[in-house]
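Why this split exists: single-chain examples teach little about how molecules sit against one another. For that reason, every record in the complexes split bundles all components of an assembly together and asks for one structure covering all of them. Below is a record exactly as it appears in the raw files.
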Amino acid sequence: MLINNDTIIKDDDERIREKSEDVSFPVSKEDKELLMEMMEYVDKSTNEEIAEKENLRAAVGISAIQLGIPKKMTAIIIKDDEGNKVYEYALVNPKIVSQSIEKAYLESGEGCLSVEDEHQGYVYRSARVKVKAYDLLKEDYIEIKAEDYLAIVLQHELDHFKGILFYDRIDSNNPFHKEDNAHPIE
Ligand SMILES: [Zn+2]
């Protein structure tokens, strides 16, 4: 399917609040194709030239529900400043199996392909999470021990499976309140 800023559903579409279902195994050809197209989107989205030409918004992750498909699949690619891939996951049925009490938050706040309005404030999440999933790139089950930025990205994407958006987690009365036992990430 064509994935660009016009086909990604936004938070004014009630489908973004839908709960996603487990993907059944073996992963169907259709699900594999979709997840690989999601990977391609994320990869291309950080290339300014392609992004501009193909109407892509830069992202490090996308979940299937953002295309209106309520299945537990998420694509994550995190690159360094030179554009080299540091983390790359094509996850099927990812699940958090443990998480730290210690929190972390992005100092500049979170963003989302499905959110166009600005929502300022801190989103506190676990600083470390352990995630189990099937990874389509490795064609195997994996366990990810993530911390800080990767941990936040994983939690953001897995929230989409529950229909939760990042700004639901911002304290509307005091968006920049400081929590104890939480550290900022630049
Ligand atoms: Zn999002």
